[in-house]
Amino acid sequence: MKIFILIVSFLLEGVVSNFVPVNGFFAPLFTLITLIVIYPLFDENSNYYKYAFITGLAYDLFYTDTIIFHAIVFCFMAFLITRMNLVLTDNYINVLIIIAICILIYRCFTYCLLVLVSSITFDIIALILSVLKSLLLNLIYSAIIFFVVKKIQKKYKYKF
What we know:
The protein has 160 residues and is mostly helical. It has helices spanning 2-19, 30-37, 45-63, 69-87, 92-116, 124-156.
């Protein structure tokens, strides 16, 4: 079931990206959000890191022109998610906090790497707008996916 949820989010991100302009008000990160929400469903962190790496690799192959960049970034984000979940419990407010922190770190990290390779020039306003654009749509999506995952988990009374 974890794979199904990841695949649906992965494909939905591609579909939404086709309808939302690149510089528009919404910036989807559905795959990263799903990795955050499904973390409590894993028994072992090593399996979670494998899922994050494979998802990042697929993200690189289908959505970007980089080869292993997002695979490494998603593994780094998975590490941060596991560390934050040690401190915070698995409820909706804490998941929102983790999502906000992860989006901030993801956007800052990728933006700084783009500046480092001189792909773009540094502009703090552009960075802040990128984070804010990502937060709105992704927090709405996280509410939907969180309650769907919790409903499925209660219905079947086990971790998938």
